[in-house]
């Protein structure tokens, strides 16, 4: 199969022909239909993620068609089109039994702990536990985001913050997961303000229905959010994993506000200095989130199938496998609006 391998930190991916994967017990092999290029892939590319060992095929936002079945797989057949969360939980441990698959101790993560989907084929473990049928109404290039960005935002808003209709949601970071939070927040009945430092991203967020946008490059973002929302947001999501946006998000909240950290802190950002006086005096709730358990797919897909949210504007670029390196390198600076999805694995 054709694949793009990470063979050296911060270097262009190596296009290579690798052996086709074969499914082990409980696994399926998918022909990859689409795979997103995510900021988390950039963390792996830079060497900031300790789980990554070279060489490795990146890619964790994927959907595909079942082309091979391992022993013990009962829910899937050849030709089925499916999606999967990027955290592939075992489905057998105590945490999985309690519905907390994202903290499964036996989890496997494509593109980080095993080869991912920057390739024509991918083997997916624990298939019966993790895979969900891809609705016919959802094009593969849009469905790719349901492996990470969209699902992570859904878990943050529904599973962690419990966002309610009529509340103000402040989104710090207008990248893929931030735009997902914007679209889903609006669908849930919230009013949304998006904060970023790139004017093009803010213009794009406004075109997608943001009630307000704030450019943190030329104003005190937290103060601006408090003024726009009449005292502060009820919920804030932080989508970059850095101290500046965490601090701004905390300060943007009204008392008893809830903050969910979606952004992945890596490298120098794994330790932060935060305004804990704001946490104390505002009686805030701070939570982290990572991924989404597979059992939450039905509620999200119902929202999409019902026409309550259109995710297609998230994808602004469909690219070839050979262009993935350029998209990874673009995260070194403010990236262009929207997300890139690999749909051509032959070139």
Automatic annotation (TrEMBL):
CC cofactor: Zn(2+)
CDD domains tied to this protein: Zn_ADH6
Gene3D superfamilies, alphabetized: Medium-chain alcohol dehydrogenases, catalytic domain, NAD(P)-binding Rossmann-like Domain
Enzyme class: oxidoreductase
A GO term for molecular function: zinc ion binding
Alphabetical list of PROSITE patterns matching this protein: ADH_ZINC
Matches recorded under Pfam families: ADH_N, ADH_zinc_N
Keyword list, A-Z: Metal-binding, Oxidoreductase, Zinc
E.C. number(s) listed in UniProt: 1.1.1.1
InterPro entries (alphabetical): ADH-like_C, ADH-like_N, ADH_Zn_CS, ER, GroES-like_sf, NAD(P)-bd_dom_sf, Zn_alcohol_dh
Domain Enoyl reductase (ER): 10-342
Family note: Belongs to the zinc-containing alcohol dehydrogenase family.
Protein name (database record): Alcohol dehydrogenase, zinc-containing
